[in-house]
TrEMBL record:
<protein>
    <recommendedName>
        <fullName>GTP-binding protein</fullName>
    </recommendedName>
</protein>
<dbReference type="InterPro" id="IPR027417">
    <property type="entry name" value="P-loop_NTPase"/>
</dbReference>
Length: 496
């Protein structure tokens, strides 16, 4: 649908960031053209969909209905009561079914464009599978009768597999949405501002625990660490504190997202991935489960957005699995082995034993992930000669090491040079807790030699070193000579 020149409300101060999302929703809701519109808003739990949609309806005088897991009759009754309160009219005596309810909702747009939100739409469809077809039929009737209706219906949900199915190829609503909007986590820079943290090292540590989920700050009473020296105490008084909602959030998140499947297997799979297993075979071996069972569990976690596939930058057929929610990685790597102890011991004592695991298994990989995000979202395209197309972890067998570890690069950048897609732009090493020196540059040069010997064009590939604690003067001198790109925390959070 096209936008119009009607006056549009500014984003409320209570909505942090989300400028692009707000503009898209306002453009949809304020469109004055005749014809009922349909929007789909998706996103995982705790990412702020409800807060954003309530702000939209409040700003435009729209109608909001939050669905719950309830029977069909109760949902219809609740919706009727809410609609009566909104219109100032008596509740309907009794709707015959969803046909009457949908017609009543769309009738709100007979006089003006008005946003009509049904939040957690999948909860209604579970009890009333016919609802998508009912909505489709209602829109067809409006179109066929030529009625001047400008309802702007927004269907929102956090059950991602259900949302994909409801608007997928086989759905009656397929192709009818004028807007499809997905809310993601705040990125690492947005998260630092959201938590009010200026120190980039502290911001990264906090992000390694709670990620960019907006709901987690109110979950700890807006308690943010006062400085780098307060981080350990902050962990103990928030995520390790049984009196805060964040204490059991990882458990609740898995419970809500996995729809009552085998949660024990899912927990164990996440623990295996958080400890370093990354392929389906490694995870199945760690679980002591058949590959088919492990694959089913992993597919479920992927469908719910808790895991993602990442092809190796040098061997695309090698697929690694990464946990998308930092809190789940933190829980299953650093806290899960000590969960029972937290009920008997002081949190500070438990954290003393868990902190080394956090530094090596959680903070290190998370720092590498942030470096990849920086290259993709914030680095000047001129830094590596072209705009990145992919940024991934890469590994290669090293003949010099024989049975030893593979040669790895945590930040491998590919892009387009001229007509050549997938050109290698950079290989980089990312180390969270190590001052980097010339031998790290030599490692990258060795890796480039291996790639060249394997037939890769490394002509345009720039070595890059990413460090959480800094670089030696010798490596800085190599940077000044144009031999290497250096990226520290200040550049990650403030530079290009």
């Amino acid at each position: 649908m096209s936008s119009s020149d009607v006056s549009r409300p500014a984003k409320p101060e209570t909505v942090f960031d989300r400028d692009a999302e707000w503009d898209a929703l306002i453009a949809f809701a304020c469109d004055t053209r005749p014809g009922a519109g349909l929007a789909v808003v998706s996103g995982r739990l705790r990412h702020g969909k409800t807060h954003l949609l309530k702000a939209l309806t409040a700003a435009l005088g729209g109608f909001y209905f939050g669905a719950q897991q309830a029977t069909r009759a109760e949902s219809l009754r609740r919706l009727g009561d809410g609609l009566a309160h909104y219109t100032g009219t008596p509740p309907p005596h009794r709707w015959r079914g969803w046909e009457d309810a949908v017609d009543a909702l769309l009738a709100l747009g007979d006089q003006r464009p008005v946003p009509v939100v049904i939040d957690e739409f999948p909860d209604l469809v579970r009890q009333s599978p016919e609802l998508p077809s009912v909505i489709h039929s209602a829109y067809r009737r409006l179109h066929d009768t030529g009625r001047d209706n400008r309802a702007r219906l927004l269907l929102s949900g956090s059950a991602l597999p259900v949302m994909h199915r409801l608007f997928g190829v086989a759905s009656p609503l397929r192709g009818h949405a004028d807007l499809e909007l997905t809310l993601h986590q705040l990125d690492f820079r947005q998260a630092a501002r959201f938590w009010g943290i200026d120190d980039p090292g502290l911001a990264l540590l906090v992000h390694a625990v709670v990620g960019g989920t907006p709901a987690y700050r109110p979950y700890v009473g807006n308690d943010a660490p006062s400085g780098p020296g307060d981080f350990d105490a902050w962990v103990c008084r928030t995520v390790l504190n049984p009196q805060t909602p964040l204490f059991l959030e990882a458990h609740h998140l898995l419970q809500e997202e996995t729809d009552h499947w085998d949660r024990a297997l899912c927990h164990s799979a996440l623990a295996a991935i958080a400890s370093g297993c990354s392929t389906q075979g490694q995870i199945a071996e760690s679980l002591g489960a058949p590959l088919t069972d492990a694959s089913h569990c992993l597919a479920l976690l992927q469908a719910n957005g808790l895991l993602r596939n990442e092809p190796d930058a040098f061997r695309p057929n090698l697929i690694r699995l990464r946990i998308t929610e930092p809190l789940l990685a933190f829980e299953h790597a650093a806290v899960w082995p000590h969960r029972s102890e937290l009920e008997q011991q002081d949190a500070a004592e438990v954290w003393h034993h868990a902190r080394p695991v956090f530094d090596s298994t959680v903070a290190g990989p998370h720092f590498a992930r942030i470096c990849r995000d920086w290259v993709r979202d914030f680095a000047d395209p001129a830094l590596f000669g072209a705009r990145p197309a992919t940024v991934a972890h890469g590994s290669l067998p090293d003949p010099a090491r024989r049975a030893g570890p593979e040669a790895e690069a945590e930040v491998v950048v590919r892009g387009r040079i001229g007509t050549r897609s997938g050109a290698l732009l950079s290989v980089g090493v990312a180390l969270w807790n190590e001052v980097m020196d010339l031998h790290h540059l030599e490692h990258l040069r060795h890796l480039l030699d291996l790639l060249a010997a394997d037939g890769e064009d490394v002509t345009h590939a720039r070595p890059a070193c990413y460090s959480g604690v800094g670089f030696t003067p010798a490596l800085r001198a190599a940077e000044a000579d144009g031999q290497v790109v250096l990226v520290g925390l200040d550049r990650l959070y403030r530079g290009e």
